[in-house]
Amino acid sequence: MALPSLEFLCDSLVAILLDYYGIDQPPVPIRDILRSPPPDLTGDLSLVEGLPFNDALWIRLPNGQGKVFANLDISEPERRYAMARSLFTGLCYTKGGRAAGLPYAPNDNLNAQAAFFARRLLMPDNLLPPDWQAMPPDELAALFAVPEWLVEDRLQELVAG
Amino acid sequence: MSVRGLQKIVGKAVISDHFRDGLLGERRAELIGGFDLEPDELDKVMAIRVETLAEFAGAIEEIVGPRHDSSIFGHVTEGRYRRFGLSVAELSAHE
Which ranges constitute the DSSP H helices of A21-109? Predict the structure, then answer.
C-alpha cells in the first residue's frame, strides 16, 4: 500500500486548517492557529512571542505542553513564516501527524519540509487573487503578509504545478 | 473531482482523534458525508481497506490523481523510513 507524499499531506493540512478557521482571504492568521488550535492539539500547540534568539522554534516543555516560541526582533513577515514552519514541526509530533505519516522529527530534512509546508499554508493557491499572475511580488507579499522572497519561491512552485 | 474535500478528510483525521478513530473504524460513511464528495468518490473512499491512517491517506492520494515528486523534501516512503532505521511495520507500531 502506497503511503502519502509530503506534498499531499501538507495540502491536506492546509485545506483543513483553512476550513476549520474559516479563512477565505489573506493573510492567513497564523497566530490564531497557534493560539487557539483544534481541541485535540491544544497539548501540542500554543504560542509565546518572546524568544530572544533565532526566529522561532517548537519545543515540548517538561510538563508535556508543546509551544512555539517566536522572536519579536524579526520583521512581521519573517516571524509569520517562522511561526508557520514551527507549526509544521509541532504537527509532526502530534498523534495524528505521526499516524498520517508526517515526517518523523527531528530529521535531516525537517527545515526544508517545514519551509515547504509554510509556503503552502501562508500562500494557499485558493486564496490567490484572480489576477495574481499579473501582480508584482511586493504586492503579493503585502497581501499575504509574507517576505517577498517567499512569494517568489511560491510563485515558482505554482507555475511549475 | 472534489480534491479539496478529499484533502480535508485526511487533514481532519490529523487534527481530530475522534474523526481519525471513526474513519478507520465503522463510522466512515457517517463521517465522510459532509465533504461534498461525488458519488463515485464516496464509493472509492468507502472501498479503502487499510489498517493505518498513513495507508488511508496514501489511498486517498491515489484517488486524487498522479503523485507529485518533490524529491528534495523526501516522500514518505518505505525507503525513507528505512533510512531512519524504521520499517513500515514499525511505522504502524508507532501509531
Answer: 30-35, 76-92, 95-100
